């Protein structure tokens, strides 16, 4: 959930995944084995990463990717290099710099890097790439299409599933019967969180004969409130303050660092709670006391797995799709709220989780990655 070019609804619907779950390993694009025996010489492999303009300390998206890269460095012994972007104009320049530093694998964090990753992959067939949170695409409107490049791997996440669980819990925990959500930008990978959240709320209403409502988003019309970027914390705070004034008591900001504005508003109001996104907000921020739960993308693990398979000569460009079933997405623990969440609500959510894994419940959205 970060910045990107705007896609139409038709374009969003076109983002059909080529795989479900962990992508199977195919014949290697490169072989880093030192002796041909298949045992990887990790120390000769260089994994690199480019942030979007949020930077690696955004307590959300970029930070999760960075932690996965550092885990690969510490546990596998691969060499790593990063390039932090401060504006969209840095993306291509940073990737070019990493190519010149002989990186074997270059990972772009966030779909605003789509164009730079795509063009670099085409121009450098001997370098492997990965893009977090988007398929590789080109064109817009009638010319929009998804590309399958042999050296560009998408790492995408079906966050609607985890959002569904969070929406159910939030509805069950709301004292006012009013939930709220808003996005950073009007993008498929933002709206997918909100779609799942609304569906989970509706499921709670159906199961319990309630009428909890959602401010800030309508799945049916695909319209709602957006900040317009992922950096205006003050606007995020203002949107949250307006929701709290209308009686909303649990808010899910799908806006990266802008979510800190929501946290500030909830803390100042001394009421309500927050559902964080991307990372476990209880762990990634210092505001765990207001975090009911989080809709987590296991970005770090997907990065680690991609680096590991690449270093072992098993790179494949087939899409990795994070789901509840394969652990690529999850609803975080309740942490400080654990004692406040009724046992029957916990049991209901666990049952829903198993039904999603089994396929009995299918969480569907136009914004499927």
Automatic annotation (TrEMBL):
Species in which this protein is naturally found: Bowdeniella nasicola
UniProt membrane topology term: Lipid-anchor
Keywords: Cell membrane, Lipoprotein, Membrane, Signal
Keyword Nucleotide-binding: no
Main location: membrane
Taxonomic superkingdom: Bacteria
Record carries keyword Cytoplasm: no
SUPFAM superfamilies the record matches: Periplasmic binding protein-like I
InterPro entries the record matches: BMP_lipoprotein, Peripla_BP_I, PnrA-like
Compartment list: Cell membrane
Similarity-based family: Belongs to the BMP lipoprotein family.
Record protein name field: BMP family ABC transporter substrate-binding protein
PROSITE patterns: PROKAR_LIPOPROTEIN (PS51257)
Span of the signal peptide: 1-23
GO CC terms of this entry: plasma membrane
Domain ABC transporter substrate-binding protein PnrA-like: 47-365
């Amino acid at each position: 959930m970060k910045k990107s070019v705007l896609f139409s609804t038709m374009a969003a619907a076109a983002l059909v995944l080529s795989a479900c779950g962990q992508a199977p390993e195919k014949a290697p694009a490169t072989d880093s084995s030192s002796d041909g025996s298949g045992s990887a010489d990790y120390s000769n492999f260089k994994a690199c990463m480019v942030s979007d303009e949020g930077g690696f300390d955004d307590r959300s998206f970029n930070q999760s990717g960075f932690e996965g890269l550092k885990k690969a460095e510490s546990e596998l012994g691969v060499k790593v290099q990063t390039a932090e972007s401060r504006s969209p104009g840095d993306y291509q320049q940073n990737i070019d710099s990493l190519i010149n530093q002989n990186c074997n694998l270059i990972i772009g964090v966030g779909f605003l890097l789509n164009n730079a990753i795509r063009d670099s992959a085409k121009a450098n067939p001997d370098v492997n790439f990965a893009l977090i949170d988007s398929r590789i695409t080109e064109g817009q409107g009638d010319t929009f299409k998804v590309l399958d490049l042999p050296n560009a791997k998408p790492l995408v996440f079906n966050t609607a599933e985890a959002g569904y669980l969070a929406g159910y819990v939030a509805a069950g925990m709301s004292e006012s019967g009013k939930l709220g959500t808003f996005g950073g930008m009007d993008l498929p990978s933002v709206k997918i969180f909100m779609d799942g959240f609304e569906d989970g709320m509706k499921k709670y209403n159906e199961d319990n004969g309630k009428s909890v409502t959602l401010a800030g988003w309508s799945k049916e019309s695909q319209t709602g409130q957006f900040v317009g970027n992922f950096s205006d914390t003050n606007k995020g705070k203002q949107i949250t303050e307006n929701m709290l004034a209308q009686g909303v008591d649990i808010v899910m900001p799908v806006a990266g660092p802008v979510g800190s504005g929501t946290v500030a508003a909830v803390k100042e109001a001394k009421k309500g709670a927050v559902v964080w996104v991307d990372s476990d907000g209880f762990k990634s921020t210092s505001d765990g006391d207001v975090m009911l739960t989080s809709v987590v993308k296991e970005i770090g693990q997907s990065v680690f797995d991609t680096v590991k398979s690449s270093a072992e000569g098993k790179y494949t460009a087939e899409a990795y799709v994070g789901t509840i079933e394969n652990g690529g997405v999850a609803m975080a623990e309740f942490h400080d709220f654990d004692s406040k969440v009724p046992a029957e609500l916990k049991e209901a959510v666990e049952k829903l989780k198993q039904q999603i894994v089994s396929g009995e419940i299918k969480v569907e959205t136009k914004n499927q990655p």
